[in-house]
Amino acid sequence: LRASSFDRRKEPPNIKAVEGQSMKWGAREALRGLKEPPDVIYDLGDVGKEPMIRILGENAVDVVRKAVKIAGKVKELKNTS
Predict the structure, then answer these.
(1) Mean pLDDT by 10-residue block, N- to C-terminus, for the chain (81 residues)?
(2) Which domain holds residue 56?
(3) Under 8 Å between Cβ of 5 and 41
(4) Nearest-CA neighbor of 66 among 39, 43, 41?
(5) Number of structural domains found in the chain
(6) Cα torsion at 28, 30, 68, 70 (round to 10°)?
(7) Quick one: DSSP state of residue 19?
(8) Hey, how many other C-beta atoms are within 10 angstroms of the C-beta on 41?
(9) pTM for the structure as a whole
(10) What's the confidence (pLDDT) of residue 62?
(11) Can you give the C-alpha Rg of the chain in angstroms?
């Protein structure tokens, strides 16, 4: 799976101030310079902004398939530590 992220601390104040604009800004930041869209976009949050993971896919089944794959990897990592 391919992942990309963005830093919410760099979000311009005028974007933070408008409800719903953070998601658009973050997606643009995470996609900037990529040739193909990632499977996952994440951010670590900021003051007043919760950390978030977005799983992207062609359809709901594709998103669920990716979520299950991620869950399997997390379980695998937990079992090795």
Answers:
(1) 95 91 93 95 90 96 98 92 73
(2) 3-80
(3) yes
(4) 39
(5) 1
(6) -170
(7) T
(8) 22
(9) 0.85
(10) 98
(11) 14
